[in-house]
Known about the structure:
CATH superfamily of the largest domain: Rhodopsin 7-helix transmembrane proteins
CATH topology of the largest domain: Rhopdopsin 7-helix transmembrane proteins
Number of strands: 28
Mean pLDDT: 85
Strand content: 15-25%
Largest sheet: 8 strands, mixed
CATH architecture of the largest domain: Up-down Bundle
Number of domains: 4
CATH class of the largest domain: Mainly Alpha
Amino acid sequence: MLGGIFSFHSSWKERQDTYTHKPTPLQCTSFNSRGFQYTQAMFFAIEEINNSSDLLPDISLGYKIYDVCGSIARSVRVALALANGNEEASAPTGAPCTRPAQVQAIMGETSSSPCMAIATVIGPFHIPLISHFATCACLSDKTKYPSFLRTIPSDYYQSRALAQLVKHFGWTWVGAIRTNDDYGNNGMAIFTEVAQQLGICLEYSVSFFRTDPPEKIQKIINIIKASTSKVIVTFLSHMDIDMLIHEMSLHNLTGFQWVGTEAWISDSETAAMDKHHILDGAIGLAIPKAHVSGLREFILDVKSLNTSSNELFTEFWETLFSCKFQQSKSSAGIQRECTGHEDVTGVQNSFTDLSLMPIFYNVYKGVYAVAHALHSVLSCNKTCNSTVKLDPFTILQHIKKIRYKTKEGDEVYFNENGDPAAKYEIINWQPRENDIVDFVTVGLYDASLPADKQLILQNKSLIWAQNSQQVPLSVCSEECSPGTRKVLQKGKPVCCYDCLTCAEGEISNITDSITCVNCHPEFWSNERRDSCVQKEAEFLSYEEIMGALLTAASLFGTCITAVVAFIFFKYRKTPIVKANNSELSFLLLFSLTLCFLCSLTFIGRPSEWSCMLRHTAFGITFVLCISCVLGKTIVVLMAFRSTLPGSNAMKWFGPTQQKFSVLGFTLIQVIICILWLTISPPFPYKNFKDFKDKIILECALGSTVGFWAVLGYIGLLAMLCFILAFLARKLPDNFNEAKFITFSMLIFCAVWITFIPAYVSSPGKFSVAVEIFAILASSFGLLICIFIPKCYIILLKPEKNTKKNMMGKGAQHKTLK
Length: 817
C-alpha cells in the first residue's frame, strides 16, 4: 500500500475556534487541478507496475490518497493516519498508539514546508517520504529528515545556478523577492550567499505569503517602485507570483527583468495569468523536459473516475467545464448544468495544459523507486516471496540504494542526501501573438560538471523585458574602465562605487579593478593609466642645447689655452715670459688644457669607465693646475726674499725643487684617487627618485669619502695658494704676478664654494651641468687672470715688455724709500 499526500485545493476557509467544542475539519476551497494531475501520474505508475510481469510479479500496489489543501496541520494529521492505519480523528479507546505501518511509502507533498513537517513526524518510523516538487535544501539534512527523499533537485544547486546565471549576464545590482516559507527563505539565503561571493549585490530582499494583509503587499510594490535595479530574482511559488503580478498590473509596474525558479518559470497557468505582460522575457531554471509514453493520454482520460461515490470528481468536473451538477435555483442562469459526458479535449485550461510534465514525471519516478525497492526486498524473480515481513526501515534502505532506468531511458538514483542528480534547463519566456508565451530552452545547467562548465547557454536569440533584444543593464555603478580603480561609496553595498583615476606611476589594465598596480621603477604610467611605458632616460648629452653649449665652452677654453701657449712659446725669450717662470707657465697651460678637456668626460651616457675617469681626471688635473700656481706663488715670495741682503732663498727653491713640488702635490692626489678606485669606485647609476617619469642616468660616487677627499685636497691647495698670493700681492715689482694669482684664486675659491650647495640642490643632469660649469669657470678664471694680462703686454704693449720697464718701477720705489 502506498500513501499519497496532495493538495487538490489551494486554500481553506478561515474559522474561529471558541475552544468550547471540538474544532470542525478544514473546509477546502479553490480547486487546484495541479494536485489532481499529480494524483493521475501516481495512478498511471501504479497501473503500469500492476500490469507488469517483470516488476513485482504477483504483487499489486494499492494507494491511500489524501487532500491536505496546502495546510501543514492537515498534512501532519494525514501523515500520522497513514503511518498508523488510523483514519479516524482519534484512536479507539484502548487501541495502542503504534501499530505496524499501513503504508510502505508516502508520495508527496508538493511544497517544502509541509514536507518538513511530515518528514519530522514520520522520520522516527523510517517510513519513506518521496516528494516530487519540494526543493528546499534544508530537506537534505538527514539528521533531521532521515526518511525524506525526492525526485527533484535540491535548491542548493538551483540557488547556485541562479547566481551564476545572474553573473553571466553582468547583473550585479538586483532585487530579490521570496515566498515567506521554508522554500523561499532557504533558497534565497543560499542565493544571497553565493551572489556575494560572485560580486552580486541585493538592493532589497523582501518576503511575503499569499495570505498576508494587503498593506504588506503594497509595501513591497512601493519598494519595487523606488528601486534602481532592473532585475528581480524570485523564489516564489506559482500561487504567490500570480498574486504579485496581479498587484503590479494594478500599478502598471512593467519593464523589469524577472529571474525565476522551477516553481513558476515553465508554468503556463502563470503565463495565462499575466495579462499585462509583466513577466515577458523572464528567464529561469526548469526541470528538464520529459516525455512518458501514455501518461498524457491517461491524465486527460478522467471519465473512468466518474462515479457517484467520488465527490472530488464532481468538483473537478464542475471546475473543468464551468458547469453544475443538479443546478440549484440560486445559480439558475449563471452556469449550465453538467451532463458528465463533456469532451475534455475540447477545452483549454490549466488541466489540459501539461506544461508541468517534468513534475508529473517526478511523481512517476518516485512510485517506480518504491516498486524497485519492494522488488529487491521481496526477492522477486518470476515470483515474489510474500512471506517476507515488510519493514519500513528496510524498504527505506533499499530505496536509497536503487539505481534503475525508466522505460524512457533515464537513470534514477539518490545520493547520500536522498537527492537526484541536479540538472536544469534554462527557460526564456518569449511572447507570441494572441497572448501566447513560448517557453524556449536557451541553455542547460549540469551540477555534475566542473564549476566553469556547469552553465551552458545555447546560441539562441533571447527576448528580454519589454520584448527587447538587448541584454538589460542592472548595475549600481557603471563599470570602471582600465586606468581607474573602484572606491566604495560610504554606507552602500560593494557594488556601489566611484571610479578614481590611478595615480601617476600606477596602472590598472582590467575592467573594474579594485587596485592600481605600481609600474616597475624603469617604467611609468601612460596618460590613460592603463599600461606602463619605458621611462625616458635622461643624461647630459651632446645633442641637447645645454650639452652643446658646455662642449663649445670647453673646446673654446682649450683653443684659447692653446693660443696662449703658442704666444708664450713664440715670445719665450722676452722679459715678461722669462720673469714669470716659463717652465711652470707652460706646465700650467698644459694642466689648464686638461682641465678644459676633462669637462667633456661629464657629457654623454654614463658608463663604468667614464664614471671612474671623470672624477679622477678632474681631481688630478686640477691638483696639477693648482700645484703649478702654488709653485709660481712660492717663486714670487722666494724671489723677493732673495733680494734681501745675505739671503739665499732661491737656492732652496730653484727650478728642480719647483718641478718636484708640483710632482709631489700631484702624486698625493693620484694616491687618493687610486685608493678611491680600489675601495669603492664611482659607477653608473639609475636614479628613479628625483623625477618620477624619468630615469636619471648619473654616476654614483661609490665612496663619498673618496670624492670629498679629492675635492678637499684641491680646496686645501687652493686656500694655501690664495693665502701665499695674498701675502705677496704688495711686493715691490713692476709686474708683480702675485696680484693676479690672488685674484684668480679668489675666483677659484668662490666658484667652488658656491658649487657645493648648487651641486647638492640641482636635480638630474643639471647637477652634472653645475659641475662642468664650475670646472670651466675656475679654469677660465685661472687662464684669464694669470695669462691674459701678459698676452696683452706681449701683443698690444710691446714697449713695456723690456727688462728696464720690468725693473724700473722697482728702482724708483727703492729710491723713494
